[in-house]
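User: Could you write out the 3D structure of this protein bound to nicotinamide-adenine-dinucleotide? I've included everything you need below.
Assistant: Certainly. Input first, then the structure.
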Amino acid sequence: MSNPLFANAPLALIIGCGGMGMGTARALGKRHPLLIVDIDAERLAAAAEALHLEGYTVSGRQCDVTDPAQVAGLGQSLGQGVRVLAHIAAVGGIVDWRVMMAVDLLGPHLVADVVEPYLVPGGVALFIGSLAGYLPPLDPRIDALLDAPLQPGFMDALEAVLGDDPKWIDTYAYAKLGMMRLAETRAMAWGAMNVRAISISPGMIDSPMARAQGATLPSHGNDDREVPRDEKKDEIPLRREGSLQEIVAVLDFLASDAASFINGIDLVVDGGHRAVWRARGVISR
Ligand SMILES: NC(=O)c1ccc[n+]([C@@H]2O[C@H](COP(=O)([O-])OP(=O)(O)OC[C@H]3O[C@@H](n4cnc5c(N)ncnc54)[C@H](O)[C@@H]3O)[C@@H](O)[C@H]2O)c1
């Protein structure tokens, strides 16, 4: 803890300190003490040290968001209250689909449940989705399933929808739809406490995570083609990928009092990509 003015104020809790998490920490840390969380102990220590040396009031806690006991333990660090929860951690690309679903959807639900009693009036939870979350078909049964991922049998029920060997992009898309729905349901549950919940859906963002997903992306046309990222970005009206800074600026705004009546929405930050998908009939949401 370096700034005594902040020492006992409610926290900005940042889950995931990759590129977007660090940018978000630097923005929110100007107004709030920071608690940063990651599964990767080395990354977490380096992140906390860097922020500390830059003058932020910061502490770190290692936690695997898929482990209910570890997430429950987070509560021990939240006694001063939580003003902002920014749930950013996720995995994309090629991992076992159940692992991806656990990190990208079950984890955020576990975290939201544990953080809930510590959220202070005026607080806000920001859940990072993705434009991919608009890809699943419009089906109330899928929505209802994704609303309860901690129920026994969830993965098997989802397997019946996705098939037994789903592509990563499909798993990712359903998990991110679940993130949007998490924001909607928590907005309704938490509104009476004067706490907001919002999801943010970035489109194509040039970032280490995006580059790690590979040089190609699904075409989202009528075929199963993979197209080079460079070709894919021509689908975007602005003809370019966004930057992490362009997402962080939106998170900073949504977490601020300037956004005090924005609640229960998904904010798409994609250079107009979704509009093109809608016009082409690629998505129905
Ligand atoms: N970068 C993009 O192009 C893009 C586009 C759309 C959406 N998003 C979303 O933005 C968010 C962050 O992206 P990023 O670029 O910062 O990713 P990143 O890979 O740089 O950071 C993710 C962080 O999450 C941590 N993490 C992974 N599994 C964890 C677990 N089980 N428990 C705790 N921490 C865990 C990782 O260690 C890492 O530090 C993700 O939700 C991602 O889906 C990114």
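The radius of gyration is 18 Å.
User: Perfect, thank you.
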